[in-house]
Model the fold of this input.
Amino acid sequence: MGLTRAALRPDLAILTMSGILDAKPRVGYFYNEKGNKTLKMVQFENLLVKDVKSVPVVVKEDDTIYDAIVSMFINKDVSTLIVVSEGGRLEGVVSQKDLLKSLLGKPDLEKIPVSVVMTRVSNVITVEGTDTVLTAARKMLEYEIDCIPVVRVIEVQGKERILEVMGRITKTNIARVFIEMIEGE
Done:
């Protein structure tokens, strides 16, 4: 190839630091089979939520619990609904557990609004599109939740942030990323 050792040494050093190559004195450089996985982990650590998020499944605050149950279990088959107001502003979330609790006491589900059982925005765990998927996965584990709304801040009023829903990230999104990376897609 007509290259000197001095010309190759910086490139070989980078490949060695990334784990793709190993080096031994008097042997030289050789391919490290585990290095490819190391590179994939670096790719995962840098992957952004906006690149893997999915379409949010939303309901309005004044939708009934009955409508939410139909949407969650029959129409969409999701574990969490994102509650929004006009303009897509985040107001809260409703989980399967929230809806199951609402069934106790046999209330009239067609008259009670979702806002009665939802988790309010001040207690909702969120991520932004510029956060890493690793950050979202950590939050899911820490708070033991299946879905996180992906938001962007549209306004700040004192200590309160007004958030617009841009999507959602779920355990399924994260599992899909792992599978695609392992299979090399």
Residues 65 and 114 are 5 Å apart (CA to CA). The domain at 49-180 is CATH 3.10.580.10 (CBS-domain). The chain has a mean pLDDT of 87.
